[in-house]
Amino acid sequence: MIRKAIIPAAGYGTRSLPITKVIPKEMFPVGVKPAIHYIVEEALDSGIEQILIVVSKRKGLILDYFDDSLGLEVFLERENKQHLLKQHKIPDAEMYYTRQSYPKGLGDAVRLGKHFIGNEPFAVLLPDDIVLSKKTPGLKQLIEDYTKHQKSVIGLNVVKPAFLKNYGVIKGAEIKPGTFQLDDIVEKPKENPPSNLAVIGRYIFTPQIFSHLENLKPGAGGEIQLTDAIKTMLQTDKCFGKIIEGNRFDIGSTNDYVNLLQTISKMD
Ligand code: G1P
C-alpha cells in the first residue's frame, strides 16, 4: 500500500519567466483551480493519504491555497451562498511542507523527504506534469504495477525523438505490453537517446532510493538528478517503467499549457 507522496515544488520556473517572478508555476490557473490542485487530487484518487510538498521561497501561495478558509466559509453562509461552499472546497489531504533553501535539483528535493517517508514505499508526483486519464488516475496505474512487483516503478511516455533531450530516457526490455524492466536511464541525453521512452513526472519508489540519493554528484544542468539515483539503484535492484495511459501536459511549456486550458474547457 502506498500512503505517502512527495510533490517537489521548489523550482524557480525559469521556463515561464517573467510570470513566475510572482506566481509559482504550480499555481497557474487551469480553469478555476491551480495546477497543483489537479496533482493533489490525482494523488488522493490513487489512495495517497499524506503529502509532503517541497517548496522554496516565494511559494507561500501554495500553503495558503491548501489552508482552511474559515472566514470565507462564514462569509458565504452569511450571504446565503452555501452552494459556493462545495465549489471552493480544496482537496481534503493531510499536507506537510518543507523548504529547499537553494534549487539544487529534483534529487535533492526528494532527498529532503527522507524522514517524512521513513521506511516505506512512496510516490513522487512532479507538478509540472498534469496527466488527464479517462479511467485510472496516472499515479494509480503505477501503484497497480508496484503491487505486483514490489519494486520501484516509473511513469513513461512515448516521445518524438526531437524532444527526448528534455527528459529522462530509459533503456529497457518490454516484459508485457507497456511495461519495461529498466537496464539504464539517462537524464536529458544530448545525443543517442537509448529509446523513445521518456520519464513523465510520476514515480513509485522503494525507500532504498534514499541511500542512492546520498552523496550524488551534480549531473545534467549542474543539478542533483533523481535520474542519477535511479541509475545507481539499477546496479543492485530491479526497477520497472510503465507507459501511463492518458494525456500529459507540461505546464512549463506555453504550448502544452494552452492545450491543457482548451482541453479542460471542453471537459467542463
Ligand atoms: C524532470 C526529470 C526528468 C523527467 C521530467 C518529466 O525534469 O529530471 O527525468 O523526464 O522531469 O517532466 P525537469 O522537467 O524538471 O527538467
TrEMBL record:
Signal peptide: none annotated. GO terms for biological process: UDP-alpha-D-glucose metabolic process. Its EC number is 2.7.7.9. GO terms for molecular function: UTP:glucose-1-phosphate uridylyltransferase activity. Residues 4-264 form the Nucleotidyl transferase domain. CDD domains: UGPase_prokaryotic. It is an enzyme of class 2 (transferase). Keywords: Nucleotidyltransferase, Transferase. Pfam families: NTP_transferase. InterPro entries: GalU_uridylyltTrfase_bac/arc, NTP_transferase_dom, Nucleotide-diphossugar_trans. It catalyses: alpha-D-glucose 1-phosphate + UTP + H(+) = UDP-alpha-D-glucose + diphosphate. Belongs to the UDPGP type 2 family. This is UTP--glucose-1-phosphate uridylyltransferase.
